[in-house]
C-alpha cells in the first residue's frame, strides 16, 4: 500500500489518526501511540510487497535496517567517547550507505524497499551530527521513531534528529493541539487539491495527451511535466506534513512557491527544500570546507564552483544511474556555477540588481524556463 496514493490508504490511516487526536486532547499516551500506530501503518504498507521468503519481507528488512543503523550509531558514539572516532566515523558511514549503494548498483536487488533513500539520509544526518559533536546521546525509542516516522518515510520531507527530538519532548497544550489539528487539516486538503485534482487533471488531459517528436510537442510536454511534477510532489509533501502535525511533529516545509524564484540558487531554496538543504549542509559545505582546509586549489572560488557540480551531480546519481538523471544533476550544477559567477562578476551592476518589477519578472521568467528544461531532461524524454 503506497502512502497517499489511494483513498484506501487514507481510510486505513484514520485508525492511526483518530486515537492520537483524542490522546492529544487528553495530553497522554501520544508518544506511545506513535510507536504502536507507526509500526502498524508500516506493516500494512510494506508486508503486502513481500513476494519471496521471510528474509526478503520488506517490513522485516525495514526493521533490520533500522536496528543496524541504531547499532552503528550507538557504536560510533561509544567509539568517539573513547577517542577512536575517525575510523568509527568511516565505518558508520559505510554501514549507512551500503544498502542504498547496493540497491543502486545491483539491478533487481530484493533487499531494497520503498523509502530506503530517505532512511539513509536520516541515518547519515545522525552520524554527521555525532561527528560534529551536536548529538551526544541517542535514546533508542526516539531514534527509532525518527527513522521509522511513517508519515514521511517513503519520500520525505527529510527531517533532522535534533528538531524531531524537540517535538518529541514538547508537551502540547490544548491550544497547541488545536493549532496542530488546524494545520494538519489545512495541509491535507491542500494535498487533495494538488495531487488528486490538479496533478491528476494535468496528467490525464495534458501530459498523457502529448505525443510526437516535434518541437512544439516537446515544449508542451516540458511545461506539462513541470507542473505535474510540482503539484504531485507538493501534494504528497502536504499530506506527509499534515499527518505529522496530528502527532505533534512539524517536519520542514518542502516547497515555497518555487516558480517565483529569481535565480537557480533561490529556486533550490524553494524546491524540495529538505533535500536541497541536506545536500548543501552535508555535501557542498563539507566539500568546500575540506578543500579550503586542505588547500586543494589556488583560487579561493574554485572549491565553491566545483562544489556545485559535486553536490548536484550526486543528487542526480541519487535519483538513478541512468544518463538523464546524471545529466540533470550536472546541468543544475552548471547553472548554479553560472549563477554564482554572474553574481560575483556583476555584483555592483545597477541593472542586474535593480528592484524594478520588470527586471524581477524577466528573472523569474528566465529561471522558470531553465528549471523547466531541467525537468525535461529529468523526465528522460530527450534520451529516448
Radius of gyration, whole Å? 22 Å
Structural class: mainly alpha
Overall 3D shape: globular
Q: Number of DSSP strands?
A: 0
Poorly predicted runs are none
Q: Order of SSEs, N→C?
A: HHHHHHHHHHHHHH
For the record, give the distance between the C-alpha atoms at the N and C termini, rounded to a whole number.
31 Å
Count of helix runs: 14
* Average residue pLDDT: 91
Characterization of this structure:
By secondary structure, the protein is an all-alpha fold. The chain has 3 domains: 7-169, no CATH class; 174-246; 258-383, no CATH class. It is 71% helix and 0% strand. The chain has helices at 7-26, 30-46, 58-81, 85-105, 116-131, 140-147, 161-169, 174-207, 215-246, 264-268, 273-294, 302-319, 323-345, 357-379. The longest helix is centred in the middle third of the chain and has 34 residues, at 174-207. The radius of gyration is 22 Å and the shape is globular. It starts with 6 loop residues before the first helix and ends in a 5-residue tail after the last helix. The mean pLDDT is 91.
Descriptive terms for the model:
globular; 384 residues; 3 domains
Can you lay out the helices and strands and say which pair or pack?
Elements: H1 7-26, H2 30-46, H3 58-81, H4 85-105, H5 116-131, H6 140-147, H7 161-169, H8 174-207, H9 215-246, H10 264-268, H11 273-294, H12 302-319, H13 323-345, H14 357-379
Helix pairs in contact: 1-2, 1-8, 3-4, 3-5, 4-5, 8-9, 9-14, 11-12, 12-13, 13-14
Amino acid at each position: 500500500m503506497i502512502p497517499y496514493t489511494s483513498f484506501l490508504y487514507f481510510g486505513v490511516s484514520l485508525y492511526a489518526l483518530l486515537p492520537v487526536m483524542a490522546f492529544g486532547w487528553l495530553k497522554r499516551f501520544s508518544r506511545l501511540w506513535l510507536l504502536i500506530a507507526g509500526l502498524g501503518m508500516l506493516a500494512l504498507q510494506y508486508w503486502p510487497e513481500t513476494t519471496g521468503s521471510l528474509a526478503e519481507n520488506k517490513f522485516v528488512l525495514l526493521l533490520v535496517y533500522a536496528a543496524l543503523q541504531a547499532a552503528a550509531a550507538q557504536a560510533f558514539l561509544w567509539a568517539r567517547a573513547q577517542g577512536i572516532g575517525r575510523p568509527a566515523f568511516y565505518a558508520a558511514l559505510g554501514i549507512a550507505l551500503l544498502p542504498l549503494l547496493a540497491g543502486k548498483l545491483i539491478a533487481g536487488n530484493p533487499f531494497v524497499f520503498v523509502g530506503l533513500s530517505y532512511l539513509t539520509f536520516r541515518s547519515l544526518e545522525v552520524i554527521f551530527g555525532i561527528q560534529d559533536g551536536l548529538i551526544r546521546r541517542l535514546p533508542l525509542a526516539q531514534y527509532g521513531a525518527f527513522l521509522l516516522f511513517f508519515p514521511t518515510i517513503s519520500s520525505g520531507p527529510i527531517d533532522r534528529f535534533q528538531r524531531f527530538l524537540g517535538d518529541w519532548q514538547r508537551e502540547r497544550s490544548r491550544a497547541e493541539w488545536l493549532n496542530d489539528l488546524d494545520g494538519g487539516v489545512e495541509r491535507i486538503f491542500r494535498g487533495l487539491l494538488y495531487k488528486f485534482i490538479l496533478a491528476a487533471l494535468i496528467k490525464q488531459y495534458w501530459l498523457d495527451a502529448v505525443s510526437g517528436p516535434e518541437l512544439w510537442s516537446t515544449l508542451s510536454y516540458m511545461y506539462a511535466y513541470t507542473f505535474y511534477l510540482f503539484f504531485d510532489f507538493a501534494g504528497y509533501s502536504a499530506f506527509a506534513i499534515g499527518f505529522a502535525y496530528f502527532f505533534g511533529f512539524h517536519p520542514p516545509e518542502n516547497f515555497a512557491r518555487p516558480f517565483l524564484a529569481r535565480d537557480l540558487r533561490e529556486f533550490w531554496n524553494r524546491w524540495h527544500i529538505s533535500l536541497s538543504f541536506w545536500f548543501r549542509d552535508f555535501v557542498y559545505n563539507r566539500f568546500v570546507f575540506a578543500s579550503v582546509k586542505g588547500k586543494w586549489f589556488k583560487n579561493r572560488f574554485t572549491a565553491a564552483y566545483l562544489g556545485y557540480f559535486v553536490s548536484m551531480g550526486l543528487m542526480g546519481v541519487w535519483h538513478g544511474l541512468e544518463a538523464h538523471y546524471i545529466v540533470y544533476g550536472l546541468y543544475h550544477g552548471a547553472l548554479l556555477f553560472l549563477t554564482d559567477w554572474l553574481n560575483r562578476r556583476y555584483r555592483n551592476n545597477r541593472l542586474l540588481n535593480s528592484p524594478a518589477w520588470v527586471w524581477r519578472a524577466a528573472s523569474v521568467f528566465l529561471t522558470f524556463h531553465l528549471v523547466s528544461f531541467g525537468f525535461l531532461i529529468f523526465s528522460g524524454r530527450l534520451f529516448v
